[in-house]
Structure formats: structure tokens, C-alpha cells
Automatic annotation (TrEMBL), chains A, B, C, D:
Transmembrane segments: none annotated. It comes from Galdieria sulphuraria (Red alga). GO terms for molecular function: inositol 2-dehydrogenase (NAD+) activity; nucleotide binding. Belongs to the Gfo/Idh/MocA family. Residues 34-153 form the Gfo/Idh/MocA-like oxidoreductase N-terminal domain. This is Myo-inositol 2-dehydrogenase.
Length: 370, 370, 370, 370
């Protein structure tokens, strides 16, 4: 392969390439790095920690917090982080820390954001901002007052498929958006205990699609009608007090309509598909697969494997991209691409959808207040 | 998303998952790690260094060697490696180093392998083993005598597409292999200087396909007939003394035939496709793309983007997988999946192909001797 | 090609094959044929005439009726039909005619069906049965009283894609149907004059999808909510008093939901796609294309052509299959697969959808009466 | 559907459309029609008879010949043809017959062509022209001397996929052709008796691909090397004296290479695929399927059905198009798109391939003489 040897013939090119490949240290060691902390050493905390450690040359994790000491300590060791703690307040006290990734349980988000903002830290926060819309508004106000940057983790926007589709819409290739169709189904339902504390399918699953509907239409939602039923497992209704199959129809201020199909169970695996249709064309994408091998065995012509079955596998790049993007926004003093307002908009849509389902009528977003 | 919160309801699951996700340190710090060195800080050296540092919990890079001191030093800093050197002999002297990744220029491979084997180091070596078949045989003998493990880097075998296709063949879904068809084209030709020192298209490009033909058929090549021409750029013939378009037909001992289409230029980008056809079925795969978005704009229905254009992007997973695999082989004392013999087999095929092209006749592999 | 010569070696096989291929006369000339008439020599009348003449060995067209004498006469000549007329009553008077294909303007359907039924003729009728639901009920009653067979031309059910998808649903591969998603868009809007007399988009376009929703779910519609807007051309609203973009959400008695996306304009051409999702799997299909050639030209990877742009091209097989099927039903004395009840069910859905759009609320089908 | 009613609002358009749809009689009955005969009432004869009868308004079959009287008679009845005969010489005697479709056994072609040409009839001939190259040359000479038109039935050229791919090549989208790859496999081997009289796989199967290679490259073949083996059924070698798996590599005068993969057995069904690769891009197509339904059943994502399994189903349009084309060429006095020379070129390639296989060396086309 000629590229392997290109070093010998084209040293200059090599150095440029090396520069691009370098994830971390070839940036001169005297270059300013952003000192960051991560709160929460759970699954998603590990993901952000890895990105910050290995794939973000200009970031340097300096503290990891987890309420289980063993997790905090082992994570610190794993990523070579100097400090760990079981109390997020240690982050507040450390003047060295410039930005914080909040990966703690949802119920702690609003308190942590307010405290971190007051301490002048930039904040990357996993969804949701807060449990109630009112709290979320308070959080946004606190952040605005503190003049720190905050980015809310709607990771799908940073996935190569979603981002490329959005780019097509923005380029004008689709024209005026007439309709958006979203399929978003989980492989299998979670435990009933989880459903009981999830806030319902609109709050827990559809909220990602509500955000993507806003992202793709480039508009605000005006009205929602939600249908749904318990089809997958009767316990989801009887014990979980929830539906498991939700069809939601949205009308946006720019005239676009959107349908969303959510289901807690999908035999084909984690099913994530998008279509945006408009006056000039359409853009669409299907699922991602672990490989693109097809088998023809005399009986059928089929893909060798089902799509990635787990959101962590499906959205690996998206999680990485969003963290890198926020680091860039801080260092280049740019507005983060997703804001607290994106969070409250999606929350309000989830509330409207639930209300529509219960009251069996179209609900206007103007009816929803904090 | 329920999985984010699953920690609260299912702590045991979480820990299992964490275990899987962990790339490095959550393995107890007292666990034995394999101490490794990397020779060569060029592009591919950086790739292996990243895998060994961040994605292989049980490996620990302890030295990096590059003949340019600046490169050696900055790479050591980047990956937090304790030692760096400009002389590979420092690796020999360090009793702490158990395994070495050779990413140096091809001309140095045979000398380095022999010295490392003699020093009792396990060896992962980028292609080729040596410049001549004779030298390669000596290298293999030296390694066998020293009883160290050696793995030759045919990375494509570790790519998810190639590996899955092979698995289908092995599963019996394809039956007896009748024909293999390989397309393997580069986006654009390298500089003439590179071609002049490349050993020709069979040695430089087709050698990967020769290996894959052996891999997919599970057999040894018996006879080759090579056709080719200079179609892309007349300088490749006049100054490079090479062809740029090669069609090669191979016959294997188990009766399988194979066609290979190599070209130094592909308007569609880096084009890597495989079909294996047999008595019971076929398995095939096409290219990998940066996303799976399709645009319909009233004029056409098309993919939003061409395939990955660069082998480093196309084979990212493959490079990572091969290095992880060798670490595993050493630690579990297993035979490496690719050996020096795989290297000499592919070299002999390249020699036979060149001979066929020059002599305009089918050449038997039995005619090729070290 | 061995099959061409197979006659020589396998004469018996040939005769069997010939028998299958034969569309008409190899059936012994003494075999009973069904004498049929076609009313209406417009586009769809021509299609049915061709099928009846050339592709239905056991049918024999004996009269063609069109109110334009020139059309009636030339059609009779074209297909070698003995009689033509400008008055459908001539069909009633001819005791030789056993079955009639009604392809006249919609406003004449109910009168013609009633008269034909009273005269003891079997009836194949293009949509709709009648202009109002009340009239349609009368028509059905008349047909039932006369004990003749009637089939309503929902041709999509006989298209290879729709029919195969239905078969998958019926086979149990999909399990319980949770959701059906239908895309059904026309390439470009019709003239305003047409829209003015069309009865609106639900009656004119969506009615096919309402039928397919019933077909795919295997259930009756319980409730509809219709959204829509005039997005394509303001004249469709101002002069046509209609919408051009309609998103409709349906709930079926078996719990299935259905979304329908209709638009009078589709830059990608005639866009007809279906997905049926259920407890065990899903079945889906996209558009039909004039060929399956892909071009990669260095800029893009694209289909060589857009889908069939015209319903007559897209549904060629469907039109042929439905007519053959009705001939078979008569000759074998079987129940036709689509009935007058299918027609009134779809009409009621269109009325409910229009009502929902006007009253901006979900409408139950139980609210719709003849 | 607005188009159905368009007659009411747009009568002029309707008449134009009708004109297009009309296959036969709406052409004024005084218009000159081409009187044709068909020799051979086997499978392919039936196909051409149907096209000539029902889909070619300006042709009129006036005689059908088959050596089995029952077949001749029933075919005449089926298509309403005035005369039938068991002796092709009756065609010669009938001054009314202007053109003849030869669908008789291959061994009779040369004699019939020469007689028909001498009688001044235009000739459409199924492959091959003759059994030997020498005879074929004589046939061509006879046709040229008689100044009648002759078209040889290479139907694939008239298939929508092949024709569209060729058009892409001709449009310049592919640039200079570097390589053509053809896959052409039969579902299952024919009876041994058939193979014994087939002239071998190159003459019987590959000959279509040899023609397509010339068609796609737009050049003449210079050299061939043929490999092959008996892999599918040992009787094909022992009793049939043939191979069943053939890989052939061709070099064309314009520098293009071509690989052809033929096999008598394909578990995926009738497998017909093409790729043309060049300096500016590539064009490719895969198989045709009876529908485009995909099923996802929790275990796999697959097409609902295998490709069309039989050449008569796969090439339905092609057979129809070629016959229409020849009628047009006669009536408009144009050169037929495929000539006797196309036939002899493909025959010579088959002879060269067989010679290469036997002599185990590349064979130049210049070695092959009549």
C-alpha cells in the first residue's frame, strides 16, 4: 500500500497527516488545555471520559466524581485522572476545573447545574435539564445569569446520519419541509420498575424524536395529537401505567407535519429511521449495521446481521462528536449547538403529547406552561 | 432512554456492562499487563500505539522508537509512554519488553525481526516480512527457532466485512467455493516516485487481494495468469515501469477460481468489494460509507456521499482488531491467526503474477522458489 | 441457452410449458368462454380490453360501449370485437353477455350497476361504486338481490408488491399488526378543474390508501384524525377548495394504527411505499423502477432513473391481475376478493377524514352514516 | 385518481394518450401492415407470435410453421393467424409474406436463412446463425447478396437494464472502459442429453456474455484465456464431456479487459449481473425480482423472494423489444441493431475460449478462422 511508504517520499504530507491523526499530545505540550471534570461514572460517564481522555487533544480530565467510591477510583485509574471524589461539590471547590460533564441521575441535574453555573463552570448536561418544566426554566435562567456556556446532550443531532440529513435539508435540496417521518423503536422493553419511574414513553423515548422533529423541520411545534396503546406486554399498562406503542402526529409553525412511531419492542432490533419530504425532494436514512455482508443461501437473500441492537453501539460516534463539539465551543467561544431551550422545548412537547393521549384531543403547545 | 437510568434499577447489569466497556484500567491494577514497544512512529505506528494505549486493557506500551527523534518524543508524550528512542536496538536491550510492533520501513523488517526473535520478543509485523522470498524464509526460520510468536499484519482479515464473509464461508452456507471475485481499487495513483520503489502493482496493491483469495477459498494458489495495462497515466508506464490496471485470474488447489480487479484510480473512491460463490450459495459485500443518507432531489436518487476514500478510514476497525488479537494470542498462548507463511504465500503469488504478465502465459506457483 | 432446445430432448415438458404460456387459444376451441362487454373506451377501458382479449384465454369480449362512436368503433376494430355501441343499454339487451367491465365516468356507475344487476350480468366496476354512501348502499342491495357477482377495482391489492406484503402479514411473519405506514404521492398536481370535481384529496387520492390500510391490518377503521394543508400550489386552496398535502392517522378495531402521507406533488415521481410493523417483525416495500441500473460517476452513486412516474406504468400488472381474477371468480363460482362493502368502507373513511379536517378533531367511523 | 377522470376535462390529451396505448387497431385500418410469418411454434416462437400479434400494431402474422401439425394449427387458432403449415417452404412460396421470424432448431437456421433471403424475405433469426463459422459466413454472404435485412436475436441488448447500462457507457459517464465484469449463471444444469448436443458451455451459455462484452466495451476481442472445471455434477464431465463452471478473461482491442463467470448452477436462481468500470466512473446492475418486498422477522432482514428463476420471465421485455425493433427497422428502412456479423463475432469468441481451455494458453482471435 503506497500510503504506508509515503513517509519516505513525501515527508511533508506525512507530518500534516500526523497532525490530523493526533488525538492528543502532539499538540505542543505548552498549548492551553481545557481542564474538565465528569460527574457520574456510569455508562455514559465512561463514554464521555474516554472521549475527553483519548479523542480530544485540547481537553484534560482532572477529576471524576461518582457516589460509589469504587467506581470513582477505578475510573480515575483507568483514564489516568489525578483526582476522584464521591461528592460533586469537590468540583465546585476546584478553581482549576473549567467545564463539567453531568452524567449523574436525572433528579440531580437541576441542583448540580445551578451550583456549577454559580461557580462559573461551563456545563455539558445529559438529558433532562430538570424533572419539571418549571425547574428547567429556573436552570436556564441561572445559567444565563452566570454567563457560562451550557450544552444539552441531544446526541442524535451529532450522529453522522442525522447530521448529514439535516445538512441536506439546510442546503435547500429538500425545499420547504412538508412532512417528517420518524421511526424510533427499542429492541425490547425495559423492566417494569424502570417504566414506573420513566415519566412515560413520551418523556422517556419520544423526547429524542421531539427534538429531532424540531431539528429537521427547523421550526417550533404548534400542536400535537398522540395515540397509543399497550400492545407489547400487558404489565406495562397494569403495573407500569404506561403505553408501549405510541403514534404521534405533530404540526409545526412552518406548516410541516411530523409522524413519530415509537415502540418499546422491535423484532428487527434498535430501529432508527428518518425521512424528510419537501417541495423539492426528500432525504432519508435507515439503520446502521455491524457489517454490510449479504448472504444468499438458496433460500433467501439477506443481510448477515440485524442492525446494532444497543444505543451505545448505534450512537458511538454521536456521543463522541457531541463532547468534542462542546470542548470546541468553549475554546473558540462559540454558542453551543444545543441549548437549554432545546431541552425545554422537547419537554413541553412530551407534556403536550401525554395530555393529548389522556384527553383524546389535539393539544396546542400554547396550552403547556411551566 | 431507559438504559441511561438502568443503573438505578439494575446495578448488577451495569457492572457487567461496565466491565465490557472498560478498555483499560478497571481491570485490577495488579493484573499482569503485556509490556510492548512500537518501532516506527509513522501513520500506522500511531494507529497501533492508540489501540495499545487506549483500547487494549492488558497491554502497556513502554517504549516508542522512531528514527526521527522529534517524532519519537512527541509520540511518547502523546500516549504517556515512559521511554523513547531513535534506535530499535534499545528495544532488544530492555528485558521488560515482551512484544514489539514493527511499523518501520519495509527494508528494515527482516533485520529487525531476526534480532527481536533472537532477543525472545514476540513480533507483530507490518507487511512485508522481507523484500525477497529468500529473506522471508530466513526470517520465518529465525522466528521458529526462537519459539516466539509472530503475526503478520494482513489487517483486512480483521475487518468486520471480510471476517463476517469468511465466517459465512466457514459455516458452510456457501458450500464448496467455485469462484471468488475481488474488486480492489485505489482512489488515485500515488506519486511516480512511490511507484518506482513499490515493486509493482502486484507486490504493492494486489498482495492484499492475494491474501484474501487464500483466506476466502481456504486453499493454496496453484496457477496465476495476469493481465494488465497502463490506462490511467502514461507516466506510470514510462517512468514508473509499471501497469496501473491489473486483472488477475487465479486457480486454487481446491478447484476454486478467483478474479482480482486492481486499479490505481477509482472515480468512486476507495473501492473494496468481495463476492464468494459456491455450490450452496454466495456471500458478498460492498463498500463502507460515512453515513447511510440518501437524497432524492427530483433529478436523482443517490447516496449523499461516496465511500470512505482512504484506507485508514476504511479499515479503522481492522487495524484495531488485529492488534487486540495479537495481544490476546500472546496472553492466552494461542497461535496467531496470520503467520509468516501467509506472508510468503502472498509474496510468491505476487512474483508469479509479475512473471505471468511479463511472459504472457499462465504461471504455476510451483515455478516460484525462494 | 439450453431451454430453447429443450423441445428436442424433452417434448413432454415442452407441452406442459406451452400450456402454461398459452394465453388464449390452445385451450380447446370447444371449451366454454365467458362472454364479456366493456363499458367505457377511455384509458382504463383500453387496459381491461387488452387483458380480456390477449391475456385471459377463457374470456371473450363481445361488445364495447363508448359514448363517442369513433372510440367505440376503433376499439372494437383494434381488439377484433364483434359489436360496438354508444349506449350501454345495448349490453342489457344482449343475452349473450355474461359479465361487464364498467369503466364509464363515476357519475354513471350506480345507474349502470343497478341496471346490469337486474339484467343478471356479473359486474366488474371501477371505483367508486357511487357518488354518495347512500347510493352505494342501494347499489350493493341491488347486486345482492340479483345474486350476481360484483368486484370493485381496488387494483393495488393485485399488485405484486402489495399482494406479497399482505401474504407476509397473513403468514404470521409480522405477528399482531401494531402500525402501518403508507406513503402515496402523485408526481404533480392535476388541473384545478379536476380538483374542483374530485371530491377532495381524501376521496380522490387517499381512498386507495384507506383500502390498503384495511387490507394490511385485516381490520375495520374505528377513528380517524386528518391534518392537511395547501403547500404545493395556493390555487388548490383558493380555486380548488382543497388541500394538497394530507397526513392522516387512523386507529383500527384490532388495535393497529396507520399513518398515511398523501401529497399532490412528489419531486421523486409517483411515490408508493408501505411498511407494516408488528409484534414479530415487519414487511416493507419501496418503489418500482424502469430498470435497476446504478451509475457511479465520481460525484455520486445513484440510480440511473426515477421510479415509474405514471400510475398506468406502475400498476400495469395490477390492472391485468384484477381482471383475470374476476374472470376466474365467475368461472369457478368463487367470491370476488374485493366487494361493494370494501368500496363503502373506504368511502366512509374518506368522509370521516374530511369531517375530521374540517372540525379539527378525531372522528369515529360510527359517526358516518349513509 | 385524477387521471381516470381526465377524459372529462382534457379530451385532447386523452386522444394522444390513447394513441400511445393502442397496440394495434386504432392505427387506421387502411395503414400498411407488415405481413410476417413465424417458423417454429416452440416456446420462443410463441413469445414472438404474441408480440407480433398483440403488441406490434404495424405487423400482421399471416402464417405459422411448425413441424408438428398440432402445434402449428393450435398456434394459428390462438393468435387468429390465417394459415399454418408444417413445411417452411410454404413461406417461400407466399409472395404476401415480407418478413420471417426463425425460431426453428439451430441446425435448420442456415438452410432456412439462405432460402428465405433468396426469396427476398427479411429475416429475424434466433441464435445461432449456423452451426459452424464457415456456414455462418456463407449465410451472411447470402443475405448481403439478396439485399434483405437480417437481425440476429441477441435479446439481452434489448433488456431495460443492459440497454440502459450501454446508454450510460455511450453517454461518456464511464469514460474509457477499463474492465467489464459479467456474472451469468443458470439456476440448475440441463439434462446431460442437452449438454451433449450443446456445443459446450462457451457456445451455449457464454456466447450471450461474449456478445454483451462486445456491446459494453464497444470493441472487438483480441485475446481470450478460458479456465473451467466440472464442479456441479461429475456426469457433466464424464457423460457430457463438458465443464459446468467457466471463468473467462478477455482482452479487447481498445484496451478493456472483461471477466465472465458462468456456472450451470446457481443457488440464488438465474443470476445476471453486469459492471462496467472506466476512467470516469462505473455503471452496474443486479438481478430483477418478482417484487421488491423485504421481510424482517426478528431473525433476518431479507428479500421476500429470489430473482426471476427462468430466462423467459427475466427477459420478457427484451424478447418483446427486439421483435418490435426489427419491425421498425424494416418499415423505416433502417439498419438492424444486431447483425450477422455480431453472430459470427460471438461464435469466434466461443471457439477461441474452447481452444484456450483445451490448450491451456491464451488464444488470439486472429487464430480463429472460418
Amino acid at each position: 500500500m503506497w500510503q504506508l511508504l509515503s513517509r519516505l517520499v513525501n515527508n511533508k504530507l506525512l507530518l500534516t497527516q500526523l497532525g490530523k491523526q493526533c488525538k492528543r499530545g502532539l499538540s505542543s505540550s505548552t498549548e492551553k488545555k481545557l481542564n474538565v471534570a465528569v460527574i457520574g461514572g456510569g455508562r455514559i460517564g465512561q463514554v464521555h471520559m474516554e472521549t475527553l481522555s483519548f479523542h480530544t487533544p485540547l481537553a484534560k480530565p482532572v477529576m471524576i466524581v461518582d457516589f460509589i467510591e469504587k467506581v470513582a477510583k477505578s475510573t480515575a485509574e483507568k483514564f489516568g485522572v489525578a483526582k476522584y471524589s464521591t461528592d460533586f461539590k469537590d468540583v465546585l471547590k476546584d478553581p482549576n476545573i473549567e467545564a463539567v460533564w453531568i452524567c449523574s441521575p436525572s433528579s440531580q441535574h437541576s441542583e448540580q447545574i445551578k451550583a456549577l453555573a454559580a461557580a462559573g463552570k461551563h456545563i455539558f448536561c445529559e438529558k433532562p435539564l430538570a424533572i419539571t418544566l418549571k425547574e428547567a426554566e429556573e436552570v436556564i435562567a441561572a445559567v444565563e445569569k452566570a454567563k457560562v456556556k451550557m450544552m444539552l446532550a441531544f446526541q442524535r443531532r451529532f450522529d453522522p446520519n442525522f447530521a448529514r440529513a439535516k445538512q441536506c435539508v439546510q442546503s435547500g435540496a429538500v425545499g420547504d419541509v412538508y412532512a417528517v417521518h420518524l421511526i424510533s423503536r427499542d429492541p425490547a422493553p425495559p423492566p417494569i420498575e424502570y417504566i414506573q419511574s420513566s415519566g412515560g414513553i413520551h418523556n422517556d423515548m419520544a423526547i429524542h424524536d421531539f427534538d429531532i422533529a424540531r431539528f429537521m423541520t427547523g421550526s417550533e411545534c404548534e400542536e400535537i395529537i398522540a395515540y397509543g396503546a399497550c400492545r407489547v406486554d400487558p404489565k406495562i399498562a397494569s403495573e407500569g401505567k404506561d403505553i408501549d406503542t405510541a403514534i404521534t402526529l405533530l404540526k409545526f409553525k412552518n406548516g410541516a407535519f411530523c409522524t413519530i412511531d415509537n415502540c418499546r419492542q422491535s423484532p428487527s432490533g434498535y430501529d432508527q429511521r428518518v425521512e424528510v419530504f419537501g417541495s423539492k425532494g426528500l432525504v432519508r436514512f435507515g439503520n446502521n449495521f455491524p457489517n454490510n455482508v449479504f448472504i444468499e443461501d438458496g433460500q433467501s437473500i439477506r443481510r448477515s446481521d440485524l442492525p446494532f441492537n444497543f444505543f451505545m453501539d448505534r450512537y458511538t460516534d454521536a456521543y463522541r462528536n457531541e463532547t468534542k463539539e462542546f470542548v470546541k465551543c468553549i475554546l473558540e467561544n462559540k454558542e453551543p449547538p444545543t441549548s437549554g431551550r432545546d431541552g425545554t422545548a422537547a419537554m413541553a412537547m412530551a407534556i403536550a403529547a401525554k395530555k393529548s393521549l389522556l384527553e383524546k384531543r389535539p393539544v396546542k403547545l400554547s396550552e403547556i406552561t411551566a
